[in-house]
Amino acid sequence: MKVVILGIESSCDDTSAAILKDGVVLSNVIASQKVHEAYGGVVPELASRAHQQNIIPVVDQAIRRAGVTPEEINAVAFTRGPGLLGSLLVGTSFAKGFAIARGIPMIEVNHLQAHILANFIKEPGAENRHPGFPFLTLLVSGGNSQLIVVRDYLDMEIIGQTIDDAAGEAYDKCAKVMGLGYPGGPVIDRLAQEGDPARFAFGKPAIPGLDYSFSGLKTSFLYFVRDELKKDPEFIAHNLNDLCASLQKTIVDILMAKLKKAARQTGIKQIAIGGGVSANSGLQKAVREEAARSGWEVFIPRLGFSLDNAGMVAVTGYYKYLASQFVGLEAPADARMKI
After folding, report:
1. What's the pLDDT tens digit per position in 54-74?
2. Is the pLDDT of residue 38 over 60?
3. Are 61 and 19 in contact (CB under 8 A)?
4. Are 184 and 56 members of one domain?
5. Concatenated DSSP letters for 20-77?
6. To 5 degrees, how large is the angle CA 249–CA 185–CA 298?
7. CA angle in degrees (0–180, nearest 5) for 173-189-245
8. Do 275 and 149 fall within a single domain?
9. 128: pLDDT confidence band, cut at 50, 70 and 90?
10. Which residues contact 278 (CB under 8 A, 6 or more apart)?
11. What SS3 state is found at 319?
12. pLDDT of 93 over the 90 cut
């Protein structure tokens, strides 16, 4: 019997649906929301309204592009959390309605776990490299910075995490200080490639163990720029590329220091990165350079599967389907869901 999974992702501001058949993603449709750019961040109420408008056409396109019929779908996997509650409610409610209409089971998916299992997505005609167990994951996004030991598809342990802000949030907040708009991470990454990463120095936290902290970096950057603007009102414009390059180097250095420490402590050389910030060119370069020095084998999902998408939800749902891990209609959205 072939297993066909419909995946639904609506944790933040992207509405996505995917169809997976026997572990292979046949379609992965994403509708992004541009409305938040004017506000410098995601507005939860606007996000949930956009999800309501997008969810039906996105699911319809995913089914059509995959070349399957609704009758062939064996289960619906949905992001239950973590994320914005209003956004999660749209995806959760749609999944319940679809499951009732088709008489099929529901599978709850943790958004963070899905980012990790994005490394197991298979595509028709692609190379499809996957890590072996156990492997170590650096999960970095707008809301999370975590180090996770993955012992099996559904067996994961957090060994380090941010005690305050996430790396992605540091990117976005510092971008706002420089007037770069939202989302700031990709803009900083692009400008950093033309700048001098050694030009400016910003504060790095001294946090014991494997935990992260980025609030101090944000404060250091803010105060530095504020003081320089007093001397030169055009300081940002005159030094934008170097500011971005120096900021990016600091964030990557912080992330890499704990990743290298975790690899040494665990003895694991299979290293994966996931989450939206894993698409950052500076981080990818640093991971690959360290891999060459330390003998790591590195796994990074391609861009379409690094950012929020339903393909990662569907592949997580597939492994939970094989393990018969289903939920009932009473399962609520959970904005603070933990791995």
Report:
1. 999 999 999 999 999 999 999
2. no
3. no
4. no
5. EETTEEEEEEEEE--GGGGGTS--HHHHHHHHHHHHHHHHHHHHHHHT--GGG--EEE
6. 65
7. 85
8. yes
9. confident
10. 138, 140, 284, 300, 301, 306
11. helix
12. yes
- Listing DSSP states for 278-313 in one string gives GG-HHHHHHHHHHHHHHT-EEE---HHHHSS-HHHH
Model pLDDT for residues 226-262, shown as the tens digit of each residue: 999 999 999 999 999 999 999 999 999 999 999 999 9
Helix (H) or strand (E) holding 272: strand 270-274
Q: CA 265: distance to chain centroid?
A: 25
Residue 329 lies in a domain: no
In a domain, 291, yes or no: yes
Short-list 46, 30, 48, CA closest to 38: 46
User: Does the residue 56 lie in any domain?
Assistant: yes
Same domain, 88 and 155: no
* Structural domain contains residue 328: no
Tell me the one-letter amino acid at 236. Answer: I
CATH number at residue 290: 3.30.420.40
Are 135 and 147 spatial neighbours (Cβ–Cβ below 8 Å)? no
Task: Name the residue range of residue 65's domain.
Answer: 4-121+305-322
Neighbours of 281 (CB within 10 A): 14
